[in-house]
Amino acid sequence: MLSILVNILLFILVIGILTFVHELGHFLAAKLIKATVFEFSLGFGPKLLSKKFRGTEYNIRLLPLGGFVKILGDGDPEKKETKEKLKDDDGNLHNKSRLAQIFVMLAGVTMNILFAITMYFIILGSSGWKMTLDWSFEDFKPVGANITKEVAEDVKYSEVIKDGGAYIAQIPNEGTIKSIAGQTITLSNQVGEVLKEHRNEVVDMDICNEECKTYSVQVSDKGTIGIALPKNYFVIISYEDNKATAGFAHLINTVRLIGIKFGDMFGEAKTTGDYSEISNSVSGPVGIYFLIDYFKNLGFVTFLSVMGDLSLSLAIMNLLPIPALDGGRVVILLIESIIRRDLNERIKTLIINGSFIFLMILVIFIMIKDVLNIQNIKDMFR
Prior knowledge:
alpha+beta; Pdz3 Domain; 3-stranded antiparallel sheet; about 20% strand
């Protein structure tokens, strides 16, 4: 019960920090261009704490999952007479240049990106400017970094498959591979490379178990001998030679890695017709809860890395060209710039409110999906 309470508090804290960072960007940008900011609120619903300072009301509200900044010209006062009175106000965002409006719209995303970069600097600096990647990314070409392999142990095979070349040569069921065809083996991926060079040949393999011995093994036409060979190394992305730009470079590399992963998933789904893996990779508050539950035990610095990743995810999501999101608002402003006139206010409001309703419905569906697949989500973080 205590663990659940801690998770809930951490969840609220994480969402609160990310929301604060995002809305702070909009707030500071609005103040910078001298737009009138009526309200800066963390959370929704009834006010718990409220303070008015220099024309802006600062609030902490009951429901902590979110927040907002209310700027004149973008989330105007509801009373029609008040709107008309302030229509020509110098502080009205709508009266600022479209470039200034775009600046305000993108400021939240910018702050989330800067927050992510800061988190990446902290975690990389505390881990020797290195980070472990998935083995599937060993051929990745990073920006401002190098990919290296760090050996964890000797090259050990764990199983000999019946009727394969290794089985026929009667090598031990488990052992350590020291060399193949005279080539010293230090990385598990070398085994496949060397064997492919000797397809349909018999090679000498130095293998150690209780004792070291040389075995003559027939290699198949596919470059295999029939053994199960776990990876014996970690794939490391290293920023040791580029420490000053490490946080920026890691953000770029993270976005590229996400793109590669989703590209592979879509490619496989298109081939197999099974899109379940893509569906499972999209998660909402339930998924974030279990993510926090898993990483809270791995140390403060690792938790900061998760905060950075979530902040980057929030930035990417907000850049989507959906009218209710920052990216969609920018698209509307760009369209207005191209046609050199404002879109009909009523139509614009309908588009934004309609897309907001769509997003809320989507979030509800994602939450339902997460609840129905809650055991699978739990298993992911075990």
